[in-house]
Amino acid sequence: MKLHHINGYIQSIYLVEYRYGLLLLDGCCRADIPILLDFISKQLNRPAKDLKLVVVTHMHPDHAGAAHRLRKLTGCAIAVANVPGHWYQGIDGALMHWTDLLLASWVAKRMKKPRTNLWYNAKLKPDYLLDDQEPLPGFPEWQALATQGHTDRDLSLYHKDSGKLYVADLMVKVKGRYIPPFPVFYPKRYRSSVEKVIKLSPSSVLLAHGGEISPEAEDYQHLLEKAPTTPVTHWRSVKTKFKRAISAT
Predict the structure, then answer these.
(1) What tens digit of pLDDT does each residue of 71-82 get?
(2) 131-149 burial, b for 16+ CB within 10 Å, e for fewer?
(3) What confidence category does residue 246 fall into, taking pLDDT thresholds of 50, 70 and 90?
(4) What is the total count of domains within the chain?
Protein backbone atom coordinates (compact mmCIF):
# COMPACT_ATOMS: atom_id res chain seq x y z
CA MET A 1 0.00 0.00 0.00
CA LYS A 2 1.12 3.51 -0.81
CA LEU A 3 -0.72 6.42 0.75
CA HIS A 4 -0.54 9.65 -1.23
CA HIS A 5 -1.30 12.98 0.45
CA ILE A 6 -2.40 15.60 -2.09
CA ASN A 7 -3.13 19.24 -1.33
CA GLY A 8 -6.73 19.79 -2.39
CA TYR A 9 -8.75 22.96 -2.91
CA ILE A 10 -9.56 23.46 0.77
CA GLN A 11 -8.70 20.08 2.32
CA SER A 12 -6.26 17.21 2.17
CA ILE A 13 -6.85 14.45 -0.37
CA TYR A 14 -5.79 10.93 0.59
CA LEU A 15 -5.38 8.52 -2.30
CA VAL A 16 -4.42 4.92 -1.56
CA GLU A 17 -2.51 3.09 -4.26
CA TYR A 18 -2.46 -0.66 -4.82
CA ARG A 19 -1.29 -2.56 -7.85
CA TYR A 20 -4.87 -3.65 -8.49
CA GLY A 21 -6.54 -0.26 -8.03
CA LEU A 22 -6.85 3.10 -6.31
CA LEU A 23 -8.96 4.00 -3.28
CA LEU A 24 -9.99 7.58 -2.51
CA LEU A 25 -10.61 8.06 1.20
CA ASP A 26 -13.15 10.85 0.72
CA GLY A 27 -15.29 12.50 -1.93
CA CYS A 28 -13.36 15.81 -2.08
CA CYS A 29 -14.56 19.11 -3.57
CA ARG A 30 -15.81 19.52 -7.09
CA ALA A 31 -12.74 21.72 -7.62
CA ASP A 32 -10.46 18.79 -6.73
CA ILE A 33 -11.43 16.68 -9.75
CA PRO A 34 -8.74 18.04 -12.13
CA ILE A 35 -6.16 17.97 -9.32
CA LEU A 36 -6.86 14.31 -8.59
CA LEU A 37 -7.05 13.13 -12.20
CA ASP A 38 -3.85 15.00 -13.04
CA PHE A 39 -2.07 13.32 -10.12
CA ILE A 40 -3.26 9.85 -11.19
CA SER A 41 -2.20 10.44 -14.78
CA LYS A 42 1.07 12.33 -14.38
CA GLN A 43 2.39 11.27 -10.99
CA LEU A 44 1.24 7.66 -10.88
CA ASN A 45 1.23 7.06 -14.64
CA ARG A 46 -2.06 5.22 -14.36
CA PRO A 47 -5.36 5.53 -16.21
CA ALA A 48 -8.30 7.23 -14.50
CA LYS A 49 -10.26 3.96 -14.60
CA ASP A 50 -7.86 2.58 -11.98
CA LEU A 51 -9.81 4.58 -9.41
CA LYS A 52 -12.07 1.82 -8.09
CA LEU A 53 -13.74 3.19 -4.96
CA VAL A 54 -14.55 6.59 -3.45
CA VAL A 55 -15.75 6.65 0.16
CA VAL A 56 -17.88 9.64 1.12
CA THR A 57 -17.45 10.15 4.87
CA HIS A 58 -20.25 12.72 5.08
CA MET A 59 -22.14 15.07 2.81
CA HIS A 60 -20.31 18.39 3.17
CA PRO A 61 -18.95 20.08 0.00
CA ASP A 62 -15.30 19.12 0.61
CA HIS A 63 -16.17 15.48 1.30
CA ALA A 64 -18.91 14.67 -1.21
CA GLY A 65 -18.56 17.33 -3.90
CA ALA A 66 -16.58 15.29 -6.44
CA ALA A 67 -18.10 11.83 -5.93
CA HIS A 68 -20.79 11.73 -8.62
CA ARG A 69 -18.57 13.36 -11.24
CA LEU A 70 -15.68 11.02 -10.49
CA ARG A 71 -17.95 8.02 -10.94
CA LYS A 72 -19.06 9.35 -14.31
CA LEU A 73 -15.47 10.03 -15.42
CA THR A 74 -13.75 6.91 -14.07
CA GLY A 75 -16.42 4.27 -13.48
CA CYS A 76 -15.53 4.07 -9.77
CA ALA A 77 -18.03 2.99 -7.13
CA ILE A 78 -19.22 5.18 -4.25
CA ALA A 79 -19.57 3.95 -0.67
CA VAL A 80 -21.26 5.76 2.25
CA ALA A 81 -22.45 5.03 5.77
CA ASN A 82 -25.55 2.88 6.05
CA VAL A 83 -27.82 5.61 7.39
CA PRO A 84 -31.42 5.97 6.11
CA GLY A 85 -32.42 9.01 4.10
CA HIS A 86 -30.44 11.97 2.84
CA TRP A 87 -28.53 14.45 4.99
CA TYR A 88 -29.94 17.45 3.15
CA GLN A 89 -33.68 16.70 3.38
CA GLY A 90 -36.62 19.06 2.95
CA ILE A 91 -36.57 22.85 2.92
CA ASP A 92 -34.25 23.06 5.92
CA GLY A 93 -31.89 20.64 4.20
CA ALA A 94 -31.86 22.71 1.02
CA LEU A 95 -31.05 25.85 3.00
CA MET A 96 -28.31 24.03 4.91
CA HIS A 97 -26.83 22.77 1.64
CA TRP A 98 -26.56 26.33 0.34
CA THR A 99 -25.12 27.46 3.67
CA ASP A 100 -22.45 24.75 3.55
CA LEU A 101 -21.53 25.75 0.01
CA LEU A 102 -21.16 29.36 1.14
CA LEU A 103 -19.02 28.27 4.10
CA ALA A 104 -16.77 26.26 1.78
CA SER A 105 -16.38 29.31 -0.47
CA TRP A 106 -15.59 31.46 2.57
CA VAL A 107 -12.88 29.00 3.66
CA ALA A 108 -11.42 29.05 0.14
CA LYS A 109 -11.33 32.86 0.19
CA ARG A 110 -9.51 32.85 3.54
CA MET A 111 -7.01 30.39 2.06
CA LYS A 112 -6.62 32.76 -0.93
CA LYS A 113 -7.80 30.13 -3.37
CA PRO A 114 -9.30 31.18 -6.72
CA ARG A 115 -13.06 31.34 -6.78
CA THR A 116 -14.66 28.35 -8.48
CA ASN A 117 -17.91 26.43 -8.82
CA LEU A 118 -18.41 24.08 -5.83
CA TRP A 119 -21.98 23.01 -6.61
CA TYR A 120 -22.83 19.30 -6.27
CA ASN A 121 -25.97 17.21 -5.92
CA ALA A 122 -27.28 17.31 -2.35
CA LYS A 123 -28.63 13.78 -2.68
CA LEU A 124 -25.95 11.16 -3.09
CA LYS A 125 -26.65 7.94 -4.97
CA PRO A 126 -24.18 5.39 -3.56
CA ASP A 127 -23.28 1.93 -4.79
CA TYR A 128 -22.48 0.55 -1.32
CA LEU A 129 -23.82 1.17 2.18
CA LEU A 130 -21.29 0.54 4.93
CA ASP A 131 -22.02 -0.62 8.47
CA ASP A 132 -19.72 -0.02 11.43
CA GLN A 133 -16.54 -2.15 11.20
CA GLU A 134 -17.37 -3.34 7.70
CA PRO A 135 -14.44 -3.88 5.27
CA LEU A 136 -14.39 -1.62 2.23
CA PRO A 137 -15.57 -3.29 -1.00
CA GLY A 138 -12.51 -4.38 -2.97
CA PHE A 139 -10.16 -3.09 -0.28
CA PRO A 140 -10.71 -5.39 2.73
CA GLU A 141 -7.53 -4.13 4.43
CA TRP A 142 -9.52 -0.99 5.20
CA GLN A 143 -12.43 -0.90 7.62
CA ALA A 144 -15.26 1.64 7.92
CA LEU A 145 -15.90 2.93 11.43
CA ALA A 146 -19.00 4.88 12.43
CA THR A 147 -17.81 8.11 14.08
CA GLN A 148 -20.93 10.24 14.11
CA GLY A 149 -21.45 13.60 15.77
CA HIS A 150 -20.35 16.16 13.19
CA THR A 151 -23.34 14.81 11.22
CA ASP A 152 -25.50 11.70 11.54
CA ARG A 153 -23.46 9.64 9.06
CA ASP A 154 -19.76 10.33 9.59
CA LEU A 155 -17.29 7.57 8.78
CA SER A 156 -13.65 7.08 9.67
CA LEU A 157 -11.48 4.65 7.71
CA TYR A 158 -8.99 2.37 9.46
CA HIS A 159 -6.06 0.46 7.98
CA LYS A 160 -5.33 -2.16 10.61
CA ASP A 161 -1.94 -3.30 9.29
CA SER A 162 -0.40 0.19 9.45
CA GLY A 163 -2.61 1.55 12.23
CA LYS A 164 -3.47 4.63 10.14
CA LEU A 165 -6.90 6.14 10.69
CA TYR A 166 -8.58 8.72 8.45
CA VAL A 167 -11.07 10.65 10.60
CA ALA A 168 -12.29 13.26 8.07
CA ASP A 169 -13.66 16.16 10.18
CA LEU A 170 -13.78 14.45 13.57
CA MET A 171 -11.14 16.95 14.63
CA VAL A 172 -9.56 19.97 12.98
CA LYS A 173 -6.27 21.74 13.59
CA VAL A 174 -6.54 25.41 14.55
CA LYS A 175 -3.55 27.41 15.82
CA GLY A 176 -1.63 24.24 16.61
CA ARG A 177 -4.39 22.64 18.69
CA TYR A 178 -6.94 19.98 17.80
CA ILE A 179 -10.54 21.00 18.34
CA PRO A 180 -14.03 19.78 17.40
CA PRO A 181 -15.35 20.75 13.97
CA PHE A 182 -18.20 23.06 13.12
CA PRO A 183 -20.97 22.04 13.21
CA VAL A 184 -21.53 19.32 15.82
CA PHE A 185 -25.14 18.22 15.51
CA TYR A 186 -24.95 15.30 17.94
CA PRO A 187 -22.73 16.09 20.97
CA LYS A 188 -23.16 12.73 22.73
CA ARG A 189 -22.34 10.81 19.58
CA TYR A 190 -19.39 13.08 18.98
CA ARG A 191 -17.88 12.40 22.39
CA SER A 192 -18.43 8.66 21.92
CA SER A 193 -16.67 8.84 18.56
CA VAL A 194 -13.63 10.59 20.04
CA GLU A 195 -13.50 8.01 22.83
CA LYS A 196 -13.74 5.28 20.20
CA VAL A 197 -10.66 6.68 18.45
CA ILE A 198 -8.77 6.95 21.74
CA LYS A 199 -9.55 3.31 22.54
CA LEU A 200 -8.44 2.24 19.05
CA SER A 201 -5.08 3.99 19.61
CA PRO A 202 -4.10 4.43 15.96
CA SER A 203 -0.45 4.87 15.01
CA SER A 204 -1.35 8.06 13.16
CA VAL A 205 -4.47 10.06 12.40
CA LEU A 206 -5.23 11.53 8.99
CA LEU A 207 -7.14 14.79 9.14
CA ALA A 208 -9.05 16.37 6.29
CA HIS A 209 -7.89 19.71 7.70
CA GLY A 210 -4.49 19.33 9.31
CA GLY A 211 -2.63 16.49 7.59
CA GLU A 212 -1.25 13.33 9.20
CA ILE A 213 -0.69 13.62 12.93
CA SER A 214 0.14 11.47 15.97
CA PRO A 215 -1.97 12.90 18.81
CA GLU A 216 -0.82 12.47 22.39
CA ALA A 217 -3.02 11.91 25.43
CA GLU A 218 -3.13 15.64 26.19
CA ASP A 219 -4.35 16.35 22.64
CA TYR A 220 -7.26 13.96 23.03
CA GLN A 221 -7.99 15.37 26.48
CA HIS A 222 -8.08 18.90 25.07
CA LEU A 223 -10.42 17.71 22.32
CA LEU A 224 -12.80 16.18 24.86
CA GLU A 225 -12.68 19.32 27.01
CA LYS A 226 -13.65 21.41 23.98
CA ALA A 227 -16.37 19.00 22.86
CA PRO A 228 -19.78 20.73 23.07
CA THR A 229 -22.50 19.46 25.38
CA THR A 230 -25.29 20.96 23.29
CA PRO A 231 -25.60 21.01 19.48
CA VAL A 232 -23.48 23.62 17.71
CA THR A 233 -25.19 24.18 14.37
CA HIS A 234 -25.75 26.82 11.71
CA TRP A 235 -29.14 27.87 13.05
CA ARG A 236 -28.06 28.00 16.70
CA SER A 237 -25.08 30.17 15.77
CA VAL A 238 -27.32 32.59 13.90
CA LYS A 239 -29.77 32.73 16.81
CA THR A 240 -26.96 33.35 19.32
CA LYS A 241 -25.49 36.19 17.24
CA PHE A 242 -28.94 37.68 16.77
CA LYS A 243 -29.62 37.62 20.51
CA ARG A 244 -26.25 39.26 21.22
CA ALA A 245 -26.99 41.97 18.66
CA ILE A 246 -30.40 42.63 20.22
CA SER A 247 -29.03 42.76 23.76
CA ALA A 248 -26.31 45.19 22.65
CA THR A 249 -28.84 47.69 21.31
Answers:
(1) 999 999 999 999
(2) eeebebbebeebbbbbbbb
(3) very low
(4) 1
